[in-house]
Amino acid sequence: MDIQRAAVIGGGSFGTVVANILADNQIQTVQWMRNEVVASAINTSHTNPDYLPGVALNPELKATTDLLAAVKDADVIFVSVPSHSVRQVVTSFAAELKPEQALISTTKGIEHDGFLLMSQVLAEICPNNPVGVLSGPNLAKEIGKRELAATVIASENSELRRNVQDALSCSYFRVYASNDLYGVELGGALKNIYAIVSGFVAALGMGENTKSMIITRSLAEMSRFAVALGANPLTFLGLAGVGDLVVTCMSPLSRNYRVGYAIGQGKTLEDAIKELGEVAEGVNTLKYVRARAIELDIYMPLVMGAYEILFNGAQPKDVAQGLMTGDYASDVEFALPKHEI
Ligand SMILES: NC(=O)C1=CN([C@@H]2O[C@H](COP(=O)(O)OP(=O)(O)OC[C@H]3O[C@@H](n4cnc5c(N)ncnc54)[C@H](O)[C@@H]3O)[C@@H](O)[C@H]2O)C=CC1
Ligand SMILES: O=C(CO)COP(=O)(O)O
Question: Which ligand has the shortest distance to the CA of 12?
Fold first, then answer.
């Protein structure tokens, strides 16, 4: 299967950049969205004024509000709506799909019921279609401006991986392959929690050593959780692990970081989300991961502290003090297990 026609489901910032890369690569691409005004702006002025203002989109990119027309002839369908909408949107076109049409999730979130990642939701709804995940350090606003970036296509299907590499690789976007679907996807979802934590740290004016400590201990915590759930920890050394963690924890372009920053400045969670006006997946992911960590007895002090700040009104400064005085721990648990320190 060569990818000649693609559909992108979702009219937000990331859906638009994926659709634009495909169009830049001369793939016939239709982007589906609910908003008629944005669809018309993409078709006539080649911009998405709501989510990527100032970015000139490829004039060949077509937008539509007709979901079935968008997916009908697509060789591959990129699903780029927030995680809370994926099941509903995909269910509404699943019965129309032919088994050779592939589905690729770009959504970095978790479904509450059953703790399902998006590729698992896709596989459940469309059990006969090939499934993959695209994840990595991919701030949409930079890629929209065609600044250089790299990502990971993860799938157990090697033909699908190669086809997506062909479809998305270009002078400003490099696509690496992985067969660890679960690890790649978990990395993309988990790092959003730590971007919120990094937002607190930045708002409190903490130093560079502090920021480095938080990012590194976040990686330790993420991989501890992932291993407990059966993922390959080595995946976390790649772009979808440490790569995405670093960019999201360091950049004010990250919406999750901005939510943490606003709360660190004293705003309420409700106001922080309202001001953002875009999706910050980490807020719900934090709730679901905390519950899972408690259920499976996985040590996740940053998750527990972030939860207290976001949902129970704890002060970031007090939580930070508590973390600094916790039990002694191992730097790299895969080298020195906790029980051996
Ligand atoms: N923006 C970024 O830099 C990146 C985002 N992602 C992930 O991509 C996913 C989508 O994010 P963005 O495009 O950035 O979000 P966004 O907030 O920019 O846009 C979300 C879009 O989905 C639409 N939407 C929401 N619910 C819907 C429903 N029920 N039916 C139809 N459309 C619906 C909204 O109207 C909006 O057009 C998220 O999981 C995010 O974590 C992944 C990589 C980078
Ligand atoms: O996933 C992203 C970058 O890789 C985008 O992060 P935010 O959702 O926090 O903006």
Answer: 1
Taking alpha carbons only, the member of 17, 28, 18, 22 closest to residue 145 is 17
| Residue 293, domain extent | 188-322
User: Ligand 1: distance of its center to the CA of 11 in Å?
Assistant: 7
Residue nearest to atom 20 of ligand 1 (CA): 12
Judge whether 255 is annotated as a binding position. Answer: yes
Largest CA-CA distance found in the chain, in angstroms, rounded? 64
ipTM above 0.95, yes or no: yes
- Average pLDDT score, the chain: 97
Residue 57 is assigned to a structural domain of this protein: yes
Q: Is 230 annotated as a binding residue?
A: no
Is 132 within a domain? Answer: yes
**Distance (Å) from CA 60 to ligand 2 centroid:** 26
**Number of folded domains that form the chain:** 2
Strand partners, 76: 6, 102
Whole-number Å distance between alpha carbons of 52 and 35: 15
Choose among 320, 218, 202: nearest CA to 264: 202
What pTM did the predictor assign? 0.97
Q: What is the pLDDT of residue 1?
A: 61
- Does 51 belong to an annotated binding site? yes
Q: CATH number for the domain including 291?
A: 1.10.1040.10
CA terminus-to-terminus distance, the chain: 52
Q: What number does the ligand 2 atom closest to the CA of 195 have? A: 9
**139 CA from centroid of ligand 2 (Å):** 6
Specify which residues 110 forms β-bridges with.
117
